[in-house]
Specification:
Elements: E1 2-6, H1 16-20, E2 26-32, E3 38-42, H2 54-58, E4 64-68
Antiparallel strand pairs: 1-4, 2-3
């Protein structure tokens, strides 16, 4: 099983990652970082992340890391 980790201080709120997720697991959350940006969060934490890392690849600020849990 995989999941992503979002570096809250690097996210600039472009939200490109949201459109890249094939399972639509990401959404704009309520939490705000030090830049005043609403951070991305999992839309449905009960669904399993594919671990495709498409969101991380699309992030221009390298704020997302895909983590594999075996």
């Amino acid at each position: 099983m995989s999941h992503i980790v979002i570096d809250e201080n690097r996210c600039k709120g472009c939200y490109l990652c949201i459109d890249e997720c094939p399972k639509k697991l990401l959404k704009i959350g309520n939490k705000v970082n030090n830049l005043g940006v609403h951070l991305v969060e999992f839309n449905d934490p009960d669904k399993e992340c594919l671990g495709c890392a498409m969101c991380a690849t699309r992030c221009p600020d390298m704020a997302i890391t895909e983590v594999y849990k075996g």
